[in-house]
Design brief:
about 325 residues; alpha+beta; three-stranded antiparallel sheet
């Protein structure tokens, strides 16, 4: 397949599911991906934290009350921009995460930039990295900070093996000409974790990215792979692997715990993906019923009833075979 650009996100997508990568990144008109409230919450928090730094609130010497008021104001604006009319969705959760971040985050070094973008070329492919924040520590070392709102806690050894922080360190070393680069995941729900990347790490990162480029170029029919992002995938409606997963597997040996765990994960991913697909189908059926001004009709093989509950905003879809 042809490839022109890569980023940490697109590389992760390729590793998760090559078929999904093709649907998203090789299309002439890139389709929009669905995003859940967790991703939107992350975007809102990210905007508020970025504005805190860009507007230099961290340099003002606020007392605790003033600092909290300023951050809540920034988060209010960010939440409204991200969530729109659904302003109440996860509002308090995001506001508290940002306020706690202000309370526990010291700025002891020099902020070199936010949303720092780096464009590089490897084997004819553009490699893009966008870093949330880059600092120079009091010791003169370089630190890339990445904000995370995930409920999953990441350990330093896990951080060191993830492609995103490895690319951040690789890009920062090229920009500032420094071999040793710290990357910190500022986990808003947990403690921040950091890892040091060296010149040897940068070389390995470059080798890995080149291997991904080679894999993509030589792949004609990318495989479908179940992963945690299936429920938001742009091709979930036509994914044969997702559709067949729940009925395709054979029984597992109770003694093979590793297989049981792997199958359990894949099954949970498949269920979430199918639930997302079912919700999309229901929306289309409701829209059809509203357009036809009917709550009950029959097709050649099924009877459809739109049942309006006392507390539900939209009717529940019920489909039965004839």
């Amino acid at each position: 397949m042809e490839i022109k650009k890569l980023s940490a996100t697109s590389i992760s997508r390729w590793l998760d599911c090559p078929a999904s990568w093709k649907a998203i990144y090789s299309a002439k008109d890139r389709p929009s991906e669905l995003s859940g409230s967790a991703a939107q919450l992350g975007s809102a928090c990210h905007r508020a934290l970025e504005e805190w730094v860009v507007e230099e609130h961290y340099l003002q010497g606020y007392d605790d009350v003033t600092a909290e008021m300023q951050m809540r104001s920034l988060y209010h604006t960010a939440h409204r921009e991200v969530f729109g009319a659904r302003g109440a969705d996860r509002y308090n959760e995001g506001a508290e995460l940002c306020v706690q971040w202000v309370e526990r985050t010291p700025f002891t070094g020099e902020v070199l930039g936010t949303e720092y973008r780096r464009e590089a070329v490897l084997d004819g492919v553009g490699i893009t990295t966008i870093m949330d924040r880059v600092d120079r520590t009091p010791d003169g070392e370089l630190e890339v900070v990445d904000y995370k709102t995930s409920v999953m806690r990441m350990a330093p050894d896990e951080l060191h093996n993830e492609i995103q922080p490895r690319l951040y360190a690789w890009a920062a070393s090229q920009i500032w000409g420094i071999d040793n680069v710290w990357v910190t995941l500022d986990q808003l729900r947990h403690q921040a974790v950091s890892s040091l990347f060296t010149e040897e790490d940068h070389a390995r990162t470059e080798e890995f990215v080149l291997s991904v480029i080679e894999d993509i170029r030589k792949t004609e029919e990318p495989e479908e792979k179940l992963n945690s992002k299936c429920r938001f995938c742009v091709r979930r409606h036509r994914c044969a692997t997702l559709s067949s997963h729940l009925v395709a597997g054979g029984p597992l040996s109770l003694g093979d715990v590793d297989d049981v765990i792997a199958q359990r994960y894949e099954t949970s991913v498949a269920i979430k993906g199918l639930e997302s697909r079912l919700a999309d189908y229901d929306d289309l059926i409701r829209d059809h019923g509203e357009a036809q001004e009917t709550s009950e009709w029959m097709t050649q093989d099924h009877k459809v009833v739109l049942w309006q509950g006392a507390r539900s905003k939209r009717p529940t879809v019920r489909v039965k075979p004839l």
